[in-house]
Amino acid sequence: MYTDSLESRIARQVTLRRLEVTSITATVLAFGLTVTLIGGTPLQESNLVAVELVERLGWTGAGVLAVITEAGIFAGYRRQRPQFPRSATAGGIFVASIGVGDLLFNVRALLNVGLPETVAWWVVLEPAVAVGTVGSVLICRGWIGKTFDKLLDFSIEKPRKAP
Fold first, then answer.
1. Cα(131)–Cα(128) distance, integer angstroms
2. Taking the model in full, what pTM does it have?
3. Does residue 109 contact residue 103 with C-beta atoms inside 8 Å?
């Protein structure tokens, strides 16, 4: 039965693709703000996993890894959507809300601290542009989703019988 309630109109607009775009965009923006804030203010990264990744991979590597991980998670949700549509959408909403929450946290920190005056902008721009470029490619082309879809395909094809 077709309904035209507010909930049904909202539900039709919540797609995994839109959630993925929201999640990756929020992560790229939050990453840029994080690098800016930490590069020019006395603020420190509070996420211990992120601190370890930055120490091992650098800012650029940690940001690219975050974006690729999100794309891989959404590829997994797309694979599960035919069997578990509500669970896949709920997972997508959860992942997207983490990225949006991180972005809002960084915006609040920027409003409290202000834009740093002593930032070495070339240090900030290099990782931000790299992560933003990777995020844009993933959003526009959907390449990583297709690649992860192939990696997650564990099905074994049965041999065909000759006619």
1. 5
2. 0.70
3. no
